[in-house]
Amino acid sequence: MRKVLAVVLLALMISAAxxxxxxxxxxxxxxxxxxxxxxxxxEVADEPEETAPAEEFVQxxxxxxxxxxxxxxxxxxxxxxxxxxxxxxxxxSHDLGGGSFIEVTRDGITVVDGPMVIAPDLRSVSVKVKAxxxxxxxxxxxxxxxxxxxxxxxxxxxxxxxx
Length: 163
Prior knowledge:
alpha+beta; Immunoglobulin-like; five-stranded mixed beta sheet; four-stranded antiparallel beta sheet
């Protein structure tokens, strides 16, 4: 048993040494020689400047996932809006308990801009958001119920604003 353990440890040490063998070595930079263009200044001024084309917006098609007692979410799943969104609200058919929340992100970064608010009737949870840029916004909503049960649903919407 000791021999097998020793062989395994030796193999691990050799593997680690081989992986680290290239660590810390810098590759010689192979920069091409500087190429100069012999063009009179007046010809250079006549050439149009090249600009990168603006990326065209592509609306993401979000996969909707409902959860128990879910009624609707505003904005609705895959809704395409042409004005900024200020609030996202999820509605449910049963009373919500503390801890219910909504998370809204754009490119993986939260755009939540205020506290979660549970309506006085305990049937919806809302949050202020800063969705004032063109993009795709992911929504995750998690209702917590007085029984202790919770479940997360998801949706998304898109905003396209004129520049």
